[in-house]
């Protein structure tokens, strides 16, 4: 299995975001199975014609999201992301709820703010 990523220099998202989203999407839909070994940062950068720092930034974001994991000299692998993503989302939601309460928002005001942010993130109108 070969990792197929296509970078469109004419599209809106930055190249690192294109790398990040394509790997995340493939991990999520199972076309990159858990345990799949990803190319090295330098190897993928060379294949895509990108700077190594661009691919490294994408890998760091994927690792922070729990999509991939680095195992030292053994390489970088697709992680079992479902549990990690759900856990991270729950932590972020709890932090948001606590911050909204400290700022004096009502539960309804906080809910509206969260809903508006989700609509914006997913590209939907109010």
Name the features.
single chain, WH_DNA-bd_sf, elongated, mainly alpha, 126 residues, three-stranded antiparallel beta sheet, Arc Repressor Mutant, subunit A, 3 strands
Summed up:
This protein is mainly alpha-helical and 126 residues long. The protein has helices at residues 15-29, 41-48, 52-64, 81-102, 107-121, and strands at 37-38, 68-70, 76-78. The protein folds into 2 domains: 15-79, Winged helix-like DNA-binding domain superfamily/Winged helix DNA-binding domain (Arc Repressor Mutant, subunit A, Orthogonal Bundle), CATH 1.10.10; 82-121.
Describe it:
The chain is mainly alpha-helical and 126 residues long. The protein is 58% helix and 6% strand. It contains five helices and three strands. The chain has a three-stranded antiparallel β-sheet. The chain starts with 14 loop residues before the first helix and ends in a 5-residue tail after the last helix. Keywords: DNA-binding, Transcription, Transcription regulation. Residues 13-81 form the HTH gntR-type domain. InterPro entries: Tscrpt_reg_HTH_GntR (IPR000524), WH-like_DNA-bd_sf (IPR036388), WH_DNA-bd_sf (IPR036390). It comes from Streptomyces tremellae.
User: Superfamily at the CATH H level of the largest domain?
Assistant: Winged helix-like DNA-binding domain superfamily/Winged helix DNA-binding domain
Level of helix content? 55-70%
- Could you say which overall geometry the principal axes of the C-alpha atoms support? elongated
Distance between the termini: 42 Å
Please work out how many helical segments DSSP would assign.
Answer: 5
Total domain units = 2
Q: Please mark out the parts with pLDDT under 50 across 5 or more consecutive residues, or reply none.
A: none
Q: Kindly provide the radius of gyration, computed on alpha-carbon positions and rounded to a whole number of angstroms.
A: 17 Å
Compressed to H and E, one letter per element, the order equals: HEHHEEHH
- CATH fold name of the largest domain: Arc Repressor Mutant, subunit A
- At the first level of CATH, what is the class of the largest domain? Mainly Alpha
Percent in strands: 5-15%
- In CATH, the architecture of the largest domain is Orthogonal Bundle
* Strand elements, count: 3
Query: How confident is the prediction overall: mean pLDDT?
Result: 89
Strand order of the largest sheet: 1-3-2
Query: Helix/strand-derived class?
Result: mainly alpha
Largest sheet: 3 strands, antiparallel
